């Protein structure tokens, strides 16, 4: 099954949809219409059924928006790393207390967590 790439970008009040393989373009009023309009255009252009091909649609966002999106991805990565580090530190703290002879109930109280969570941490 053939796959057709389409690039979508904002152009005034519309979304401009370019399909390079067909050297053609169409437009949509909203992003929610892009897939339907693209599929209809390709099927009409090739005179084939709308389910006889696949599409790879990518939206080109303005540079300023791309910068914000990139910043979000970096922040989420940093957050995931921080969560991983925090989990490792919780586990290390619980194991250290366990090595000092505390019960999991006391570990839970000392770390302000449930005794069930303390058990999980010392078992890691």
From TrEMBL:
<protein>
    <recommendedName>
        <fullName>Antitoxin HicB</fullName>
    </recommendedName>
</protein>
<dbReference type="InterPro" id="IPR035069">
    <property type="entry name" value="TTHA1013/TTHA0281-like"/>
</dbReference>
């Amino acid at each position: 099954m053939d796959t057709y790439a389409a690039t979508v970008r904002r152009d005034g009040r519309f979304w401009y949809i370019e399909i390079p393989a067909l050297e053609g373009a169409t437009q949509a009023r909203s992003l929610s219409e892009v897939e339907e309009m693209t599929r209809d255009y390709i099927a009409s252009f090739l005179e084939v059924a709308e389910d006889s091909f696949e599409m790879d649609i990518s939206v080109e966002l303005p540079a300023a928006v791309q910068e914000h999106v990139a910043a979000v991805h970096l922040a989420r990565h940093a957050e995931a790393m921080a969560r991983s580090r925090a989990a490792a530190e919780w586990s290390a703290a619980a194991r250290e207390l366990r090595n000092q002879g505390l019960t999991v109930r006391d570990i839970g109280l000392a770390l302000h967590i449930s005794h069930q969570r303390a058990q999980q941490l010392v078992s890691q």
